[in-house]
Amino acid sequence: MNNLTGLIPILYAALQVVSRELVGIVPAAGRDFRADSVATGQILRVPITPVSENQDITPGQKPTNGGDEFEYIDVTISKNRIARPIIWRGDEEIAVGGQLNIMLVNQYTQAMRSLCNEIEHDVCLEAVQGALEQGNYFGEPGVTPFENNLRELAQVIKIMDDVGTPKFQRNAVFNTAAAANLRSLDKVLLSVAHSGTPDLLRQGVIGDLMGFAVRESAGLTQMTAGTATSVTLDAVANVGDRMLSINALVGTLNKGALLTLGSEYYVVRSNYAAGATQILVGPAVKERAVTGTVCQVVSSYLPNVMFTPDAILAAVRAPAMPAAGDEAKDVMVITDPVSNLSFQVALYGDYRQSRVEIGLAWGQRSINPQHSVVLLG
To answer: Which phi-psi region, left, alpha or beta, contains residue 149 (left: φ > 0; alpha: ψ -120 to 50)?
Structure first.
């Protein structure tokens, strides 16, 4: 094995398996290909166009205000990762004989799968957090949507339409519990007369639904709050506040936990340890709450997320190599056409053994979260 050419069929055989698993949010997220030139930890600055303000026309008088002042959201490549290196010695290859290629396919599959799962989870968490910080949500924690009909999806569409989310390129990424309920709506989705397509009935493909490209993701997992069951305000929470002053926290709160304050849910934006006296939440407080108000903590929920690609950015690239090269004997990049993930494969020759590393570098940021909605479950 002097170079990676002989491994190309094996690598793509492994990729065929990985690309068909539940990686739903990464291929739907926006991409910024400038990430190729950004080092790990370096800032990738994304400009945000401000909302336009109308003004009166006065004959003979030029407009007094003109030009936009752009704001920016910073994204960093926060992870530079490889799967567990794949190492083979000559005697090991001889010992397995004709099983070698099958074993290699399985090893490469597991390596790419672990990287896919990690980036999928990271992007899902960021998308959910961004939507909740905007206050864009529908449904009840602990109640899986689509039990009997598509009412929840209709309400999500209303929320998106009300905030002006573009009608095109809308994506709905469901957890497996919600997707199972969708597939159970036999009178709606399994009927070709109602759905207009036999894909779900014949192939198990959910496809397009009410203007959404419907996907599933294993990265949408149960969000747990931590050990705290409630927090008590130690000062008035005024409309517009994001930082809440509380009595010393009993227990812990995880980033992504939901609190109830009045009739609204608020998401916790950082991890907090016992004893904390201030917590940052989103969205901004909508109803004034007095000192002593008890905010209940939702123990857990299972999210789904709907969005357009501009709502969430996934900055993904191959791990950087020095221009002069390193000890790698060969390096190549293989791209999955389904997820658009490009994996770096590097072959290293150690003394009487070979080592293959499969790597990926990425970061994620919710950059236009008003165009995303969480459907609670």
So the answer is: beta
